[in-house]
Amino acid sequence: MSKDSVNDxxxxxxxxxxxxxxxxxxxxxxxxxxxxEEQKQNVAPNTGNEHNERNEHNEHNEHNERKEKFYxxxxxxxxxxxxxxxxxxxxxxxxxxxxxxxxxxxxFLNGKDILGAAKTGSGKTLAFLVPSxxxxxxxxxxxxxxxxxxxxxxxxxxxxxxYNVCKDLCKYIxxxxxxxxxxxSKNEEKKKFMYGINVLxxxxxxxxxxxxNTKEFIYQNLICLIIDEADRLLQIGFEEELNIILKKIPQxxxxxxxxxxxxxxIENLIRLSLKKPIFIEVTTNIATVERxxxxxxxxxxxxxxxxxxTFLKKNMNKKIMVFFNNCNSxxxxxxxx
Length: 337
Ligand SMILES: Nc1ncnc2c1ncn2[C@@H]1O[C@H](COP(=O)(O)OP(=O)(O)OP(=O)(O)O)[C@@H](O)[C@H]1O
Known about the structure:
By secondary structure, the chain is an alpha/beta fold. It has helices spanning about 5-15, 25-40, 50-70, 85-90, 100-110, 125-140, 155-170, 185-195, 205-215, 230-235, 240-250, 265-275, 300-315, 325-335; strands spanning about 70-75, 95-100, 115-120, 150, 175-180, 200, 225, 255-260, 280. It comes from Piliocolobus tephrosceles (Ugandan red Colobus).
C-alpha cells in the first residue's frame, strides 16, 4: 500500500468517531492521567531508606504471592514417572509442579481423559507432555510402531515451542519425537515418518495431508491425543481437519483437550473427542503483571488496520509492543513504520 493511500485512510478514520479502549476521549484522558499518577507512585524516586525498604518489602511479598499462585506443593520427584524423565526435568531446572501440572498429570497417568481450561503461561506444555511420554516409555513404544502421542496445536510457532520442550524433555528416553508443520519440505517429513515419530507435534492442515498421502505415516497405534488451544484451532477454521483426524485415529485412546474459552463449537469437539473427561480449571492469571491496566476494543475486521494505524501514529513517542498472529502481518507493519 502506498504512503498516500495510507494517509487517505488515516484522514478518513480521523473524521469518524475514534474507537479506543476507553469509551470516549475524556474518559481515556482521565484513565491516562490516573495511569500516570499510579506510575508515579510505582516508580517514585528514592527519597530515603524507609521508602526503599517498604518498596522492596512490597515487591518481595508480591513476588512470593505470585509464586504461590503459580506453583503447587507437588515435586516432579514425587511423581510416579520414569527416572529418565525426572532426569530430563532436573536438567531443565523444573522441580515443583505448577497448579495445572499438579491437577492434570496424576489423572492422565491414571488413564483419564482431561478437559483443561487454563490461561496461557500456566505450564500446560509439561502438563500433557510428561504423562503422555511416560506412557510410551512404560510400554516400550518403538520407532517402528509409528506415532504414539499426537499433539495438535493451531500455529507453527506454538508447535515449534512445544517441540523444543519435548526434545529437551526426551533427552534420556529412547522414544523419538518430531515436528510436522506447514511450510516445511514434505519429502524431508516423509523421511522422518519412515524412521518413525513416536511423539509428534503438528499443525492440523499438514497433518491431514500426511494422513491422506504418506503411507509411511503409521498412526494406527496412537495412544494419546492432545488438542492444544482448541478454541484457537476452531477460530482459525480447522474444524474440518479436526473431524478428519478424529475419524482416522483409533477410538481406543486417551485424550486431553485444552481450551481457554468454551463455545458451542468446542462443546461439539469435546463430545467427539473425549470420554468422561476430568474437568480441570486453573483461573489464576499469572501471565500478567498485576499492576498492568488492561483494556480492549472489539473492531470489525475491515476497520482493524485503520484503528491500529491511527493508534500507533498517535503514540509514536511511547514504547509499544504489538503482537500479531502471523509473520506476514509482522513484516507488513514493520515495513510501514
Ligand atoms: N514446573 C515448572 N517450573 C518452573 N517453570 C515452569 C514449570 N512449568 C512451566 N514453566 C515455565 O512457565 C512458562 C509457561 O509454560 P508453558 O509454555 O508450558 O505454558 P502454556 O500454558 O503452555 O503457555 P502458552 O500457551 O503460552 O504456551 C515457560 O517459560 C515454562 O518454562
